[in-house]
Amino acid sequence: MSRAEIIDTPAGPAQLKRSHRKTLAISVLPDGTLELVAPDHAPLEAILPRVAKRLGWIKTQRRAFREMNATRPALRFVTGATHRYLGRQYRLKIAKGEPQEVSLRGAFFHVSIPKTGENEVKQALEAWYRRQSRLQFERRLASWAEWCRHRKLPQPKLRLRRMPKRWGSALPDGTICLNPELIKAPSACIDYVITHEICHLKHPDHGPKFRALLQQLCPDWKRLKERLESTG
After folding, report:
1. What pairing do the DSSP bridges indicate for beta strands 34-39 and 88-96?
2. Which CATH superfamily is domain 138-231 in?
3. Residue 88, C-beta contacts closer than 8 angstroms, at least 6 positions apart
4. Which of 78, 81, 87, 102 has the fewest beta carbons closer than 10 A?
């Protein structure tokens, strides 16, 4: 995929990227940015009318993100603050101690740490999240091994990758890149993202064949996608 260029559209400035896909993808990111991914040789004269047709949807998405961001409090890393794991909220219990340890017991994250400043607690909790991400995602990807083998697709292998604007991506060699932040989402949403990326091993673009396969493998994908976007 090419690097993004900024173009003017009926919906305002947008990031335009080029790829080998066959259709135009229009996305509104959580910060309100409009992102377009277009076929390599699609002229702007063909792209801009498509954006104009989606203007109402774009405005609705931006309004929803503005409302969501206005009501979402900043994360704190102090005793009593809440953090998500697999879609559920847990409260922090922080104690000074060695060795450093994070554990999930009942409704609480128990954090034992030599220095109890917010930055130290944040680093400890993020390291725990990353370990859990690898364990959870590798187990879920392993369940697709036989499905991929039967269709002569590359075996899926995990790469954790922080992506500020995406939950996942798929590479032709079978590498499935997943954002470790996804571990905070409900299990069903994690499975939807993985299924989405597995479908890309067979159909790299978002064309009709991709959508048909995703619908077959994850009939509830639209609701799960909306749930994932709403919980962010």
Report:
1. unpaired
2. Metalloproteases ("zincins"), catalytic domain (3.30.2010.10)
3. none
4. 78
